[in-house]
Amino acid sequence: MGRRVVITGIGVLAPGGVGTRQFWEQLSEGRTATRRLSFFDASPYRSQVAAEVDFDPRAHGLGESDIERMDRAAQFAVTTTGEAVADSGLDFAGLDPHRVGVTIGSAVGATISLENEYRRVSDDGRLHLVDHRLAPAHLYNQFVPSSFATDVAWSVGAEGPATVVSTGCTSGIDAVGHAVELIREGSADVMVTGATEAPISPITVACFDAIKATSVHNDDPEHASRPYDRSRNGFVLGEGSAGFVLEELESARRRGAHIYAEIAGYSSRCNGYHMTGLRADGAEMAEAITRALEEARLNPTDIDYVNAHGSGTKQNDRHETAAFKRSLGDHAYRVPVSSIKSMVGHSLGAIGSIEIAASALAMENDAVPPTANLHDQDPELDLDYVPLTAREHRTDTVLTVGSGFGGFQSAMVLTRPERRTA
Predict the structure, then answer these.
(1) Which of 278, 302, 313, 363 is the most exposed place for a label (fewest CB within 10 A)?
(2) What is the pTM of this model?
(3) For residues 48 and 236, what is the distance between their CA atoms, to the nearest angstrom?
(4) Choice among 217, 309, 331, 393 that is catalytic
(5) Which one is catalytic: 169, 178, 217, 319?
(6) What Cα–Cα distance (Å) separates residue 339 from each residue in 28, 235, 385, 412?
């Protein structure tokens, strides 16, 4: 079976849940963290709701120079990977740094810093030729998303492979999938991985307004994210981060590590169809699910819970419902499916990693988080979407999926190591 890869450390910063424990409490209680956007005046915009993280970088050990130098998304990444490292119990100082790598996912990089600095050097957009003298010395680091991997590598002392994966809204799954492959092929023994995003800025809100992808339930922000509900009308923009420590299974067992889950299978596909559109038949997502199951050497009936993309757009909910039926067969009607975006919003490139964390914690607690705000299920969508209330449920194997603009479709299978045989 080759080198098998497990999660031994988790860190999370999510709307409504700062830290892994608070994050799981929020999900298990079905509490939403969507609210009226507060980072700037949202009144001119079509969608005025967001899922914001209540984050104090100083409380998480970041100094003034770090705060000035690093974009909010980079601060998230360093914080969550730091929590994951502490949670793993692994002595990083005793590791060969060249055998420790980093992969971080992000769809839009240092959006907030870049927008703020552009406004500064252009006199709030009035100058066609910007004044470079107004730019801070660290602007280049914010311009290149690779700095996210650099900041994390510095913080943990990693000198092995370091990569930023940017595949839109599947970045958070794909970054972790890449980290798994680096361990399997022997390029690293330990990977610090995950994804981060802080996209809540005027330019991002305007972009999604233009294509009418975000919710306009502005009069009811707490219930604006409504995956699978008849009244859904788009996703709620969010932010956040999740970090993980991954290592080889036998090494983790030898040191007595707590193992959350084995990452048994991963696959990604691109539909080559449309930048933002999705085919209704879900063929490409179904293909990614099937290949991930094959890599895991598991059957569709082994899946105990599906952590869905569940963005709350009409086409996505139809697309992935069809994909589950196509890939899981009749088992799709028996397995619980839920979307945590109903509670924490859609943090673009970070959400895939946040959903991996939710999947591992569902296994840890033998419980399925609910789809909040699902009061009137769309009759076109006929699976068990776990409305409103978490459910106690034996959860040994979880399928988590992601779908992203550009046609990206990714799937990952997490399981208890003992569920797999050689």
Answers:
(1) 302
(2) 0.97
(3) 9
(4) 309
(5) 169
(6) 12, 12, 8, 15
Is 309 designated active site? yes
Structure tokens at 44: 């001119």
Q: Model confidence at 306, in pLDDT bands (50, 70, 90)?
A: very high
Q: Of 153, 146, 78, 135, which is closest to residue 110 (Cα–Cα)?
A: 146
Cα dihedral angle (25, 26, 30, 36), rounded to 10 degrees? Answer: 170
Q: 240-248 and 261-270: which strand pairing?
A: unpaired
Report domain extents, the chain.
5-110+145-419
346 is catalytic: yes
Q: Distances from the Cα of 282 to the Cαs of 250, 270, 330, 421, in angstroms?
A: 37, 12, 16, 30
- The residue with tokens 């470079």 is 132
Q: Is 393 a catalytic residue?
A: no
Between residues 309 and 1, which one has the greater pLDDT?
Answer: 309
**Can you tell me the distance from the alpha carbon of 189 to that of 169, in angstroms, rounded to the nearest whole number?**
27
- Locate 30 and state its tokens: 């079905």
Distance between CA 308 and CA 64 in Å, rounded?
38
> What angle is formed at CA 371 by the lines to CA 366 and CA 373, rounded to 5 degrees?
145
CATH class of 5-110+145-419: alpha beta
User: What single letter denotes the amino acid at residue 40?
Assistant: F
> Of all helices (H) and strands (E), which one includes residue 276?
none
